[in-house]
Specification:
With 306 residues, this protein is α+β, with helices and mostly antiparallel strands. The protein contains eight helices and twelve strands.
Protein backbone atom coordinates (compact mmCIF):
# COMPACT_ATOMS: atom_id res chain seq x y z
CA UNK A 1 0.00 0.00 0.00
CA UNK A 2 1.34 3.40 -1.04
CA UNK A 3 -0.08 6.76 0.06
CA UNK A 4 0.86 9.63 -2.26
CA UNK A 5 -0.37 12.92 -3.66
CA UNK A 6 -3.06 13.06 -6.32
CA UNK A 7 -2.06 13.19 -9.97
CA UNK A 8 -4.30 14.33 -12.80
CA UNK A 9 -4.33 10.82 -14.27
CA UNK A 10 -5.88 9.55 -11.01
CA UNK A 11 -9.05 11.58 -11.47
CA UNK A 12 -11.33 8.91 -12.95
CA UNK A 13 -10.27 6.31 -10.37
CA UNK A 14 -10.66 8.73 -7.45
CA UNK A 15 -14.11 9.78 -8.67
CA UNK A 16 -15.09 6.11 -8.99
CA UNK A 17 -13.97 5.39 -5.42
CA UNK A 18 -15.94 8.41 -4.19
CA UNK A 19 -19.14 7.27 -5.92
CA UNK A 20 -18.83 3.52 -5.25
CA UNK A 21 -22.05 2.42 -3.62
CA UNK A 22 -23.15 6.06 -3.42
CA UNK A 23 -25.00 6.91 -6.61
CA UNK A 24 -26.36 10.01 -4.89
CA UNK A 25 -22.91 11.65 -4.91
CA UNK A 26 -22.09 13.70 -7.99
CA UNK A 27 -18.41 14.44 -8.60
CA UNK A 28 -16.71 14.57 -11.99
CA UNK A 29 -13.11 13.73 -12.82
CA UNK A 30 -12.80 17.22 -14.34
CA UNK A 31 -13.78 18.80 -11.02
CA UNK A 32 -11.18 16.73 -9.17
CA UNK A 33 -8.40 17.84 -11.50
CA UNK A 34 -9.50 21.46 -11.08
CA UNK A 35 -9.70 21.22 -7.28
CA UNK A 36 -6.19 19.83 -7.07
CA UNK A 37 -4.79 22.47 -9.42
CA UNK A 38 -5.72 25.26 -6.99
CA UNK A 39 -2.77 26.64 -5.06
CA UNK A 40 -1.85 29.52 -2.79
CA UNK A 41 -5.06 29.43 -0.75
CA UNK A 42 -5.28 29.39 3.03
CA UNK A 43 -7.47 26.32 2.59
CA UNK A 44 -4.34 24.23 1.93
CA UNK A 45 -6.47 21.77 -0.05
CA UNK A 46 -4.81 18.45 -0.76
CA UNK A 47 -5.88 15.03 -2.01
CA UNK A 48 -4.07 11.88 -0.86
CA UNK A 49 -4.39 8.70 -2.90
CA UNK A 50 -4.11 5.09 -1.72
CA UNK A 51 -2.50 2.86 -4.34
CA UNK A 52 -2.31 -0.92 -4.06
CA UNK A 53 -0.33 -2.94 -6.60
CA UNK A 54 -0.47 -0.04 -9.04
CA UNK A 55 -4.22 0.52 -8.70
CA UNK A 56 -5.86 3.55 -7.07
CA UNK A 57 -8.22 2.07 -4.47
CA UNK A 58 -9.17 5.14 -2.45
CA UNK A 59 -8.51 8.78 -1.68
CA UNK A 60 -9.03 11.49 0.93
CA UNK A 61 -9.61 15.18 0.16
CA UNK A 62 -8.85 17.60 2.98
CA UNK A 63 -8.27 21.21 3.87
CA UNK A 64 -8.72 24.04 6.34
CA UNK A 65 -12.27 25.36 6.79
CA UNK A 66 -12.44 28.94 5.54
CA UNK A 67 -15.15 31.56 6.00
CA UNK A 68 -15.21 31.41 9.79
CA UNK A 69 -13.64 33.25 12.70
CA UNK A 70 -13.20 29.86 14.38
CA UNK A 71 -9.60 28.70 14.11
CA UNK A 72 -8.01 25.28 13.83
CA UNK A 73 -10.93 23.60 12.03
CA UNK A 74 -10.26 21.21 9.17
CA UNK A 75 -12.27 18.82 7.02
CA UNK A 76 -11.74 15.51 5.28
CA UNK A 77 -13.82 13.54 2.80
CA UNK A 78 -12.55 10.06 2.06
CA UNK A 79 -13.58 6.80 0.44
CA UNK A 80 -12.14 3.42 -0.48
CA UNK A 81 -13.48 1.01 -3.08
CA UNK A 82 -15.67 -1.55 -1.27
CA UNK A 83 -13.65 -4.56 -2.39
CA UNK A 84 -10.44 -3.05 -0.94
CA UNK A 85 -11.74 -2.06 2.48
CA UNK A 86 -10.33 -3.47 5.73
CA UNK A 87 -6.81 -3.54 4.29
CA UNK A 88 -5.56 -0.39 6.01
CA UNK A 89 -6.07 2.10 3.18
CA UNK A 90 -8.47 4.40 5.06
CA UNK A 91 -6.32 4.35 8.21
CA UNK A 92 -3.20 5.22 6.22
CA UNK A 93 -5.01 8.00 4.35
CA UNK A 94 -6.22 9.54 7.62
CA UNK A 95 -2.69 9.48 9.03
CA UNK A 96 -1.48 11.44 6.00
CA UNK A 97 -4.36 13.89 6.42
CA UNK A 98 -3.49 14.44 10.08
CA UNK A 99 0.15 15.16 9.28
CA UNK A 100 -0.78 17.65 6.57
CA UNK A 101 -3.46 19.53 8.50
CA UNK A 102 -1.55 19.58 11.80
CA UNK A 103 1.24 21.40 9.97
CA UNK A 104 -1.29 24.12 9.13
CA UNK A 105 -2.64 24.56 12.63
CA UNK A 106 -5.70 22.31 12.42
CA UNK A 107 -6.70 20.79 15.76
CA UNK A 108 -10.25 19.59 15.05
CA UNK A 109 -11.28 17.51 12.04
CA UNK A 110 -14.80 17.36 10.59
CA UNK A 111 -16.12 14.73 8.20
CA UNK A 112 -19.30 13.16 6.87
CA UNK A 113 -19.85 9.42 7.30
CA UNK A 114 -22.17 7.07 5.47
CA UNK A 115 -24.98 6.37 7.92
CA UNK A 116 -24.47 2.63 7.97
CA UNK A 117 -22.96 0.37 10.67
CA UNK A 118 -19.53 -0.38 9.17
CA UNK A 119 -18.74 3.26 8.41
CA UNK A 120 -19.88 4.50 11.81
CA UNK A 121 -18.01 1.74 13.63
CA UNK A 122 -14.80 2.56 11.72
CA UNK A 123 -15.14 6.22 12.68
CA UNK A 124 -15.96 5.79 16.34
CA UNK A 125 -13.05 3.34 16.73
CA UNK A 126 -10.78 6.14 15.51
CA UNK A 127 -12.03 8.78 17.88
CA UNK A 128 -14.82 10.45 15.94
CA UNK A 129 -17.80 11.70 17.92
CA UNK A 130 -21.00 11.28 15.95
CA UNK A 131 -23.27 14.28 15.50
CA UNK A 132 -26.12 15.49 13.35
CA UNK A 133 -27.66 13.67 10.41
CA UNK A 134 -28.12 14.58 6.76
CA UNK A 135 -30.60 13.01 4.37
CA UNK A 136 -29.96 12.47 0.68
CA UNK A 137 -32.87 12.32 -1.73
CA UNK A 138 -33.08 11.49 -5.40
CA UNK A 139 -35.47 12.14 -8.23
CA UNK A 140 -36.00 10.51 -11.59
CA UNK A 141 -36.18 13.43 -14.01
CA UNK A 142 -38.25 11.37 -16.44
CA UNK A 143 -41.17 11.77 -14.02
CA UNK A 144 -43.30 14.92 -14.38
CA UNK A 145 -42.60 17.93 -12.20
CA UNK A 146 -45.38 19.49 -10.13
CA UNK A 147 -47.17 22.39 -11.84
CA UNK A 148 -45.27 25.65 -11.54
CA UNK A 149 -46.82 28.10 -9.06
CA UNK A 150 -47.64 31.57 -10.36
CA UNK A 151 -44.82 34.06 -9.91
CA UNK A 152 -45.62 36.72 -7.31
CA UNK A 153 -45.66 40.33 -8.55
CA UNK A 154 -42.18 41.72 -9.01
CA UNK A 155 -40.51 38.28 -9.08
CA UNK A 156 -38.63 36.85 -12.04
CA UNK A 157 -36.52 33.72 -12.46
CA UNK A 158 -33.22 34.09 -14.26
CA UNK A 159 -30.21 31.82 -14.89
CA UNK A 160 -27.14 32.50 -12.76
CA UNK A 161 -25.22 32.89 -16.03
CA UNK A 162 -26.76 36.37 -16.26
CA UNK A 163 -24.34 37.41 -13.48
CA UNK A 164 -21.24 35.96 -15.15
CA UNK A 165 -19.57 39.39 -15.37
CA UNK A 166 -20.34 40.36 -11.77
CA UNK A 167 -21.54 37.53 -9.49
CA UNK A 168 -21.17 39.59 -6.31
CA UNK A 169 -24.99 40.01 -5.90
CA UNK A 170 -25.27 36.20 -5.79
CA UNK A 171 -22.49 35.99 -3.23
CA UNK A 172 -24.53 38.31 -0.99
CA UNK A 173 -27.40 35.81 -1.06
CA UNK A 174 -25.11 32.96 0.00
CA UNK A 175 -23.23 35.05 2.56
CA UNK A 176 -26.50 35.87 4.30
CA UNK A 177 -27.96 32.37 4.10
CA UNK A 178 -24.95 30.44 5.44
CA UNK A 179 -25.01 32.37 8.70
CA UNK A 180 -28.01 30.41 9.95
CA UNK A 181 -27.76 27.20 7.95
CA UNK A 182 -29.50 24.48 10.01
CA UNK A 183 -27.24 22.37 12.20
CA UNK A 184 -23.91 23.93 11.28
CA UNK A 185 -21.28 23.42 14.00
CA UNK A 186 -18.93 26.10 12.63
CA UNK A 187 -20.11 29.74 12.38
CA UNK A 188 -19.71 30.94 8.80
CA UNK A 189 -19.25 34.52 9.91
CA UNK A 190 -16.21 35.56 7.88
CA UNK A 191 -17.16 34.50 4.36
CA UNK A 192 -14.85 36.20 1.84
CA UNK A 193 -15.94 36.97 -1.71
CA UNK A 194 -12.58 35.88 -3.14
CA UNK A 195 -12.86 32.46 -1.48
CA UNK A 196 -16.41 32.02 -2.79
CA UNK A 197 -15.31 32.90 -6.31
CA UNK A 198 -12.41 30.47 -6.15
CA UNK A 199 -14.07 27.52 -4.46
CA UNK A 200 -17.69 27.75 -5.61
CA UNK A 201 -18.50 30.07 -8.46
CA UNK A 202 -15.53 29.07 -10.63
CA UNK A 203 -15.89 25.29 -10.23
CA UNK A 204 -15.93 23.65 -13.68
CA UNK A 205 -18.92 21.51 -12.70
CA UNK A 206 -20.96 24.55 -11.58
CA UNK A 207 -23.68 24.80 -14.22
CA UNK A 208 -24.61 28.46 -14.34
CA UNK A 209 -27.21 27.88 -17.05
CA UNK A 210 -29.13 25.42 -14.84
CA UNK A 211 -28.60 27.42 -11.62
CA UNK A 212 -31.60 29.70 -11.15
CA UNK A 213 -31.91 33.00 -9.30
CA UNK A 214 -35.16 34.43 -7.96
CA UNK A 215 -35.05 38.18 -8.43
CA UNK A 216 -37.37 40.53 -6.52
CA UNK A 217 -37.78 43.99 -8.02
CA UNK A 218 -34.40 43.62 -9.71
CA UNK A 219 -32.54 42.32 -6.64
CA UNK A 220 -31.31 38.69 -6.30
CA UNK A 221 -33.16 37.28 -3.29
CA UNK A 222 -32.81 33.49 -3.58
CA UNK A 223 -31.17 30.88 -5.75
CA UNK A 224 -30.75 27.20 -6.47
CA UNK A 225 -27.12 26.51 -7.43
CA UNK A 226 -26.31 23.39 -9.41
CA UNK A 227 -23.40 21.10 -10.18
CA UNK A 228 -23.53 18.37 -12.82
CA UNK A 229 -21.36 15.52 -14.01
CA UNK A 230 -21.80 16.64 -17.62
CA UNK A 231 -23.53 13.34 -18.47
CA UNK A 232 -26.80 12.57 -16.74
CA UNK A 233 -26.55 13.53 -13.06
CA UNK A 234 -27.58 16.81 -11.47
CA UNK A 235 -26.71 17.92 -7.93
CA UNK A 236 -28.38 20.71 -5.95
CA UNK A 237 -25.24 22.29 -4.53
CA UNK A 238 -27.02 24.93 -2.43
CA UNK A 239 -30.48 26.47 -2.33
CA UNK A 240 -30.54 29.70 -0.37
CA UNK A 241 -32.68 32.73 0.38
CA UNK A 242 -31.75 36.00 2.03
CA UNK A 243 -33.41 36.23 5.41
CA UNK A 244 -35.41 39.35 4.58
CA UNK A 245 -37.07 37.54 1.65
CA UNK A 246 -37.95 34.27 3.36
CA UNK A 247 -41.48 32.94 3.65
CA UNK A 248 -42.40 33.78 0.04
CA UNK A 249 -41.51 30.44 -1.56
CA UNK A 250 -38.68 31.94 -3.64
CA UNK A 251 -36.19 29.07 -3.18
CA UNK A 252 -38.99 26.67 -4.09
CA UNK A 253 -39.67 28.57 -7.32
CA UNK A 254 -35.96 28.67 -8.19
CA UNK A 255 -35.41 24.98 -7.53
CA UNK A 256 -38.45 23.90 -9.53
CA UNK A 257 -37.35 26.04 -12.50
CA UNK A 258 -33.82 24.65 -12.25
CA UNK A 259 -35.16 21.10 -12.45
CA UNK A 260 -37.26 22.05 -15.48
CA UNK A 261 -34.15 23.33 -17.22
CA UNK A 262 -32.26 20.15 -16.26
CA UNK A 263 -34.96 18.02 -17.88
CA UNK A 264 -34.78 20.14 -21.05
CA UNK A 265 -30.98 19.75 -21.07
CA UNK A 266 -31.26 15.96 -20.98
CA UNK A 267 -30.26 15.21 -17.39
CA UNK A 268 -31.75 11.99 -16.04
CA UNK A 269 -31.25 11.92 -12.27
CA UNK A 270 -31.33 14.69 -9.67
CA UNK A 271 -29.95 14.49 -6.14
CA UNK A 272 -30.02 16.78 -3.12
CA UNK A 273 -29.30 16.67 0.62
CA UNK A 274 -30.57 18.43 3.73
CA UNK A 275 -29.96 18.52 7.43
CA UNK A 276 -32.75 16.42 8.95
CA UNK A 277 -33.86 19.43 11.04
CA UNK A 278 -34.33 21.62 7.96
CA UNK A 279 -38.10 21.27 7.73
CA UNK A 280 -38.72 23.98 5.09
CA UNK A 281 -36.31 22.54 2.51
CA UNK A 282 -37.35 18.96 3.25
CA UNK A 283 -40.92 20.05 2.48
CA UNK A 284 -39.83 21.76 -0.75
CA UNK A 285 -37.98 18.64 -1.89
CA UNK A 286 -40.93 16.40 -1.05
CA UNK A 287 -43.19 18.68 -3.13
CA UNK A 288 -40.69 18.44 -6.00
CA UNK A 289 -40.87 14.64 -5.91
CA UNK A 290 -37.57 13.77 -4.27
CA UNK A 291 -37.44 10.50 -2.33
CA UNK A 292 -35.00 9.67 0.48
CA UNK A 293 -32.17 7.41 -0.73
CA UNK A 294 -29.30 7.60 1.81
CA UNK A 295 -28.05 9.28 4.96
CA UNK A 296 -24.90 10.70 6.53
CA UNK A 297 -23.69 11.43 10.04
CA UNK A 298 -21.34 14.21 11.04
CA UNK A 299 -18.12 13.06 12.67
CA UNK A 300 -15.71 15.27 14.63
CA UNK A 301 -12.38 14.30 16.24
CA UNK A 302 -9.13 15.80 17.37
CA UNK A 303 -6.26 15.83 14.87
CA UNK A 304 -3.44 13.50 15.83
CA UNK A 305 -0.15 15.33 16.05
CA UNK A 306 2.98 13.76 14.51
Amino acid sequence: MTIRDFRAEDAEAVAAAHRAGREHLVLSAEALVWLNAQSGSAEHFRTFVAELDGRVVGAARCGVVLGTTATGIGYVNGSVLPEFRRRGAATALLAAVDRHLAAHGVAELHTWLDDEPASLAFATARGYELGRTMRFAGRDLALPLPPAPALPPGVELRPAADWADDPHPLFLVEEDAVQDEPGSEVPMDAYAYEDWLRADWNRPDRDRALSVVAVVDGEPAAFSMVQTDGVDRYWSAFSACRREFRGRGLAKLAKRESLRLAVAAGYRYAYTSNDTTNGPMLAVNAWLGYEACAGERKGIRKVKRP
